[in-house]
Amino acid sequence: MTRSMILMAAVAFVAMSTTPAQSQMVCGERVEIVKALESGHQEQKTAAGLSGNGGLVELFTAVEGSWTLLLTVPGGPTCLLGSGEDWEGWKSTGQPKGQQSSAQPKLPADAT
User: Fold this and answer.
1) What is the pTM of this model?
2) Which residue in 31, 58, 71, 77 could disulfide with 27, CB within 3.0 to 4.6 Å?
3) What are the pLDDT digits (tens) for 35-73?
4) Is pLDDT larger for residue 44 or for residue 25?
5) What rounded mean pLDDT belongs to the chain?
6) Does residue 14 fall inside a structural domain?
7) 67 lies in which domain range?
8) Closest C-alpha to 2, from 36, 34, 49
9) Which pLDDT score, from 0 to 100, does residue 34 have?
10) CA dihedral 69, 28, 26, 59 (to 10 degrees)
11) Do the domain assignments include residue 104?
């Protein structure tokens, strides 16, 4: 699973897990929001990608496990899509750290 697929899954999960009372987005200037994440929560940008509408989706994480997902709309504000605890980073192989295998899968003898 690629990082973009992980981000898309995270966005979908956050979007589905909000109730109408929670659906008000927190938005503001990107520079100020990033500054607050870096200084207040010790989070750094660890992944980013472009959404279908050209928006910038960014994932900020901290060593302690906190995470924040942001969306910056072209020419618009930066909005908080979700945040939480216990983030577990994965390598681009889609497998948890420590479970990567460089071995090629064995093909049956008749698969030629």
Assistant:
1) 0.63
2) 77
3) 999 999 999 999 999 999 899 999 999 999 999 999 999
4) 44
5) 77
6) yes
7) 3-84
8) 49
9) 96
10) 0
11) no
Burial of 61 (0-12, 13-18, 19+ CB in 10 A): buried
Domain assignment present for residue 64? The answer is yes
pLDDT confidence of residue 24: 76
Residue 86 or 98, more confident: 86
The 3-state secondary structure of the chain reads: CCHHHHHHHHHHHHHHCCCHHHCCCEEECHHHHHHHHHHHCCCEEEEEEECCCCCEEEEEECCCCCEEEEEECCCCCEEEEEEECCCCCECCCCCECCCCCCCCCCCCCCCC
Number of domains in the chain: 1
Q: Is 12 inside any structural domain?
A: yes
Q: What are phi and psi of 46, to 5 degrees?
A: -120, -15
The pLDDT score that the predictor gives to residue 97 is 57
Which amino acid appears at position 20 of this protein? P
